[in-house]
Amino acid sequence: MSNDASPTLAESSFEQPPAAFPMMSAYMPMVKSAAMTSAAELGVFHFLHRQPASPLDAARALDASGQGMQSLFHALASFDLLIRNGDGTYRNAPFIEHYFTPAAAADLTAGLLWNAEAMKLMTGLTDAIRQGRPAESMWATMTRRPGMGALFSRYMEAFAGYFSADLLQHIDIPAGASQLLDIGGSHGLHAASLCLRHPQLHATVFDLAESLTQTPRVIEQHGLQARMTLRAGDAVSDDFGSGSDGGKFDVVLLLSVLHNQTEADAQDIVRRALDALKPGGLIVIHEYFHDPANPGRYAASFLLTLLVEVGTTLQQPDLLQTWLRDGGCRTIRRVDMQEEGKGSLLLAMRDGA
Ligand SMILES: C[S@@+](CC[C@H](N)C(=O)[O-])C[C@H]1O[C@@H](n2cnc3c(N)ncnc32)[C@H](O)[C@@H]1O
């Protein structure tokens, strides 16, 4: 080992030739991601959920070329995402069947559809690394690009369906609570789940207008038209409502919202969210905590995604807890989800009930 801790030539050289052409480590994940995304856009996984099919039958049913579909099937099978039957037809592999078809507890197909947008945004990565931010935040892009906000909301809705049971397990709605505010609530599924569980609860879903296009459908699907209200606005600048002895809400949700803001804006949003809470009310923050010196693969990927999409970073739990204490919360509980990618919750009560 040399003194400056940089690897010597002997340490960095391979004793064996690599098992594959080194470019494969970048090329194969890209092709796998693109093939899964195209399969979702064409409806391949849902089609094969209904019946096994040959590439030609799938091409005919899904309005694609036979050659294209055959190449797609071969690629998906090579990644163990499709399985070839003895008669030459294909079926979904169990992983696909369980997470990307109507058989899933929460079909994540919308995540693959969003992936098509995410891949376009990733083309700005080098510039974003140079500049420290994207040329334009994706929230601004959404105001110009019809359909982009809806795609993102549908992905968030799919994730919310996947995450909902964990969330409900940890949220204890205060007794007698009647008003909930879901800031950056998008699809509204979390607010809807809480309304279904607590029949006295009414919810306001607050978000950018582009992110509220799917919410009326979600509200209608759950029959909550009389108990859920939409409010389009900007959490950075709009008032959530407060009075001299506290706000009108018993519960405020800030779920996966604060990492999309600068630290100063996030702090201000937390302050105003607490002002909107009645004394004794509950605030729930969902975030992704990490060790800045060694974030680990998931948080590191998320940080790069935030850089290229919004130009922000993940918030630190100590800072969030300080803001909550400064806003009058003495009781703060942290829950770390076990599954990678599900993040953590901070649950705090505003003092003075
Ligand atoms: C990652 S999504 C989370 C959606 C939802 N809370 C959930 O957990 O599924 C972040 C949400 O914050 C919203 N958002 C971002 N900036 C906002 C702003 N300035 N004002 C209001 N909402 C904002 C986005 O539109 C989006 O719906």
Brief rundown of the structure:
45% of the residues lie in helices and 16% in strands.
Strand share of the residues? 15-25%
- Rg calculated over all Cα atoms: 23 Å
pLDDT below 50 for ≥5 consecutive residues: which ranges? none
For the record, the CATH architecture of the largest domain stands as 3-Layer(aba) Sandwich
Small molecules in complex: S-adenosylmethionine
For this structure, what is the CATH class of the largest domain?
Alpha Beta
Instruction: Summarize the helix and strand pattern as letters.
Output: HHHHHEEHHHHHEHEHEEHEHHEE
Number of helices: 15
The helicity comes to 40-55%
Structural class of the secondary structure composition? alpha/beta
- Distance separating the two termini: 62 Å
Task: Strand order, main sheet: write it out.
Answer: 5-4-3-6-7-9-8
Describe the structure.
The radius of gyration is 23 Å and the shape is globular. Helix 2 packs across helix 7 and helix 7 packs across helix 10. The strands form 2 sheets. The chain has a 7-stranded mixed beta sheet with strand order 5-4-3-6-7-9-8, sandwiched between helices. A two-stranded antiparallel sheet has the order 1-2. By secondary structure, the protein is of the alpha/beta class. It folds into 2 domains: 104 residues, Orthogonal Bundle (Arc Repressor Mutant, subunit A), CATH 1.10.10.10; 225 residues, Vaccinia Virus protein VP39 (Rossmann fold), CATH 3.40.50.150. Bound molecules: S-adenosylmethionine. S-adenosylmethionine binds next to helix 10.
Tag the structure with descriptive keywords:
single chain; 353 residues; alpha/beta; Arc Repressor Mutant, subunit A; Rossmann fold; 2 domains; 7-stranded mixed beta sheet; two-stranded antiparallel sheet; 15 helices; 45% helix; 16% strand; globular; binds S-adenosylmethionine
